[in-house]
Design brief:
The chain is mostly helical. The chain has one domain. 57% of the residues lie in helices and 0% in strands. The chain has twelve helices and no strands. Helix 1 crosses helix 9, helix 6 packs across helix 9 and helix 8 packs across helix 9. 38% of the residues are buried.
């Protein structure tokens, strides 16, 4: 992992913890309820994804609730550059961030669908004009250049959303997908929680646990997903 990648990772982890996004992903209370309902009962997500079987397949990447495959691949690659993986350090792809974003846009964040469609179209156009290739075909260094241009508002061709707004929104959704409870579709195998040492919900804490100044590491870590299954 390059120093640039490590710096980006530290920034996103710090932003997530500082914003209190580790446990909830930053979703508003009403959106949390919608997203949980969508994840537990897929029929609430979209008429096209109306069965538990469909939802499971979506989580595995066999189909998507909102994105087509090209857009899903682009978002996945973008999120991975924002939160790059490394040996022993899970990234956005490891945490299945794309599944979180996809399900959110099919449910609680459905009002952002046009935002994403237009943003992805502008991103594709910018990359083809600048590099003669779509984002997913660029080498990591070029992808980082694109992301930097978006963040600085220097990427041409963006109207709605603006380049900065598209970058900021995708960064926020990446953080949520890394650190929200797995019930919302991301944080696969508690990848984000393990990264920051968050133990998840526990059935009980002992007196020794409460008095200890050491990091709490006892397993298993229980999430809302496990509770919903019961």
């Amino acid at each position: 992992m390059s120093k640039h990648d490590e710096s980006r990772r530290k920034f996103l982890v710090g932003a997530a913890v500082g914003a209190g996004a580790v446990a909830t992903g930053g979703l508003p209370a009403d959106a949390l309820a919608q997203a949980q309902a969508a994840a537990v009962t897929p029929a609430a997500v979209t008429p096209a994804a109306a069965t538990a079987h469909d939802h499971e397949r979506a989580a595995e990447g066999a189909l998507r609730a909102f994105f087509n495959q090209d857009d899903a691949t682009t978002i996945e690659a973008f999120a991975e550059r924002l939160m790059p993986g490394a040996p022993g350090k899970p990234g956005a792809r490891d945490a299945n961030v794309i599944n979180y974003i996809d399900l959110a846009l099919a449910g609680a964040y459905a009002d952002q669908q046009d935002f994403y469609r237009r943003g992805l179209a502008a991103l594709d156009q910018y990359c083809r004009v600048t590099y003669n290739k779509p984002f997913v075909e660029l080498i990591p260094a070029q992808q980082d250049e694109v992301i930097t241009a978006l963040e600085a508002g220097k990427a041409a061709g963006f109207t709605y959303p603006s380049a900065v707004a598209f970058f900021n929104t995708l960064r926020t959704y990446t953080i949520e997908g890394m650190f929200a409870d797995p019930v919302y579709g991301g944080n696969k195998d508690f990848a984000g929680w393990r990264l920051v040492g968050f133990p998840g919900a526990q059935p009980m804490f002992t007196t020794a646990d409460m008095q200890s100044s050491e990091a709490f590491t006892r397993l298993p870590m229980a999430g809302l997903q496990a509770k919903a299954a019961r």
